[in-house]
Design a protein that fits this description.
Blueprint: H1 5-22, H2 27-47, H3 54-77, E1 96-103, E2 110-120, E3 123-124, E4 128-134, E5 146-150, E6 154-156, H4 168-173, E7 177-183, E8 188-194, H5 198-215, H6 220-231, H7 239-247, H8 258-271, H9 281-299, H10 304-322, H11 327-342, H12 350-370, H13 378-405, E9 408-409, H14 412-438, H15 444-465, E10 471-472, H16 479-497, H17 501-526, E11 529-533, E12 541-546, E13 549-555, H18 560-570, E14 574-576, E15 584-587, E16 590-595, E17 609-612, H19 620-627, E18 631-634, H20 640-653, E19 656-659, H21 660-663, E20 666-669
Helix pairs in contact: 1-3, 1-11, 2-3, 6-15, 7-15, 8-9, 8-10, 8-14, 9-10, 10-11, 12-13, 13-14, 13-16, 14-15, 16-17
Amino acid sequence: MIKHISFHLCFALITGLILGHYLNLSHCELWYLLAGGISLLCVVYFISNRFLNPRFYFALTGFLVIVFIGIARVGFTKDTLLKNHYTRFLNDKTTEILSIKNILKPSKNYNKYEVSIHQINDKKVIGKIILNIKKDSLNSDLEIGQFIFTDAKIIAVEAPKNPYQFDYKKYLENQHIYNQIYTNFDAVKILEKRQISIYSLAGNFRKKVINTLINKGLKGDELAVVKALLLGERNQISASLRENYAAAGAIHILAISGLHIGIIMMLISFVLKPLESLKRGKTIKLILIILSLWIYAIIAGLSPSVLRATTMFTAVSISLFSNRKNDIYNVLALSAFLLLLLNPSYLFKVGFQMSYLAVIAIVTIQPKLANLWHPKQKFINYFWQLICVSTAAQIGVLPLSLFYFHQFPGLFFVTNTVVIPLLGLILGYGLFIILLASINLLPAILVAYYQHIIHYLNVFITWVAHQEGFLFKNISFSFLMMFASYLIILSGYFLIHNKKPINILWFCLSIISLQSVLFYETYTSSNSHQFIVFDTYKNPLIAIKNGKNLQLIANDGANEYVLKNYLIGSGLKNILPPEKEKNLFLINQKKVLIIDKAGVYEPLENADIVILTKSPKINLERLIQQSNPSLIIADGSNYKSFITLWQNTCHQKKITFYNTAEKGAFIYSF
């Protein structure tokens, strides 16, 4: 695999993209970098004959140039450097003209949209933001392509306030989104002008199909699953259903990905097989397959996952057409190269990483697993091949999955053995229904049968998800552990492929590296101590970390999500409940006084830290005079008006004031 030139090009580009992500070069510096790299390549090319190994020097220089291209590609996508980016025109009072680009999954209280911003006041601008519109049953949703006018304030996306919390700000920044708007539907004016684009046309087509399915009786979870499976719209899948699919190891089928496009490619190939008997029939068949895949990708909205999968299987189709099996590595690397060159942010998307790792694992590991057993019965061999494919894909994505999602579905092979064959039927049946719905010839009985199929799929997924003994949750898995795990998988593959002494050595070293990471992280965690005041709304959460134990000081039981993130991220084993009726603590020789809503406390001489929670009605000046604290902390459970008064008092008394709502969780390491 690593001998293919496309692999080297892709590796060089990825190296450049990673460097460019952390470098902050101006456009001028990027042009100098590119010009210097290309000039160096030309010089090496003309004088390479004087070297003993001209190919090596030219290849090395070419590698560096691709790295420079990767750095420049990331730098040029940083649109905030452009003079007409909207962030240069923000102020307290603005009016904005926006267009709906994509409909996102709604939150509990808001419908969410990705929008392009075209005008601020009288300035023509560019950029993307998130539009949050408060849910109102009396108003309909916005549609892709609509232009709207609003004077709502554009605000920054907040960074995570608590340790090991999902960084939504960074997630959006990787998509070049830096701000958002919160408003009501009444504060938005829909303009007559509409943006006609491939996205809006596809959105209208999906809306027509969905309305037809609803009119024919499709509803509930079945409708939500069909919209996700066939049309790429996941915004109506309930949280409980999503959790069931994740626990069963089948969450990947709720997003149109390589699995869906691969099955659709095989279905189309089967339907078009008679063309092979014609002159140039294979070429015509290839063109029709690629054309069909991209038409479906457009209908599904050309989301990043759909675009990624369609590009990848376009390359796979060409590889299969050429009838050269080894070309699969070239086409995979080339498709990744082109995608990353077009959109560098794909590199940091979980879906992109998992898709390519799964396909590479299937191509490389599945044949090794399949050779372990050769059943004579076709029926048994079919399911054995499915198990091999599923296991190979799981091996490829397991470290990445543990790093991002911290759980492992032990019955994944059972789920995939049932779901993958059924998925072929569901997708084929579904595409036929979409075709009939688009020409208004869809019988209700076909929709009824389809609803039953999806219903039983959901029932099976729910049954697997409730086998909790096979679901391993809350697994602490760091980046270093993920990296070391992939070293083991890679070195293990080369060892199986060729049992050379050097491969045995690399495999042993990779195991030692994982053991070293485990030892290092266990040692550092066991010897770390922290005092944490989390930023939580309404219900305070305060704790002391002593090695592998977490002693809760204040917790009303409503902060499971925040606490779970911290436990997984820090690798803690034991949680000790809070001691009742105690508000004074000694932490590393520092006196800590906690005052809650009751406002009752014993006057303490020379308190080091005072923590205010749940808006206690106290005279802060008197408290400062009595206890002389060096630091006062207010967590997120306090009223904003109280926090403002306390902050002003501390400023007058020249005492450090820490507001977790602004600065995030307070962490004191000792």
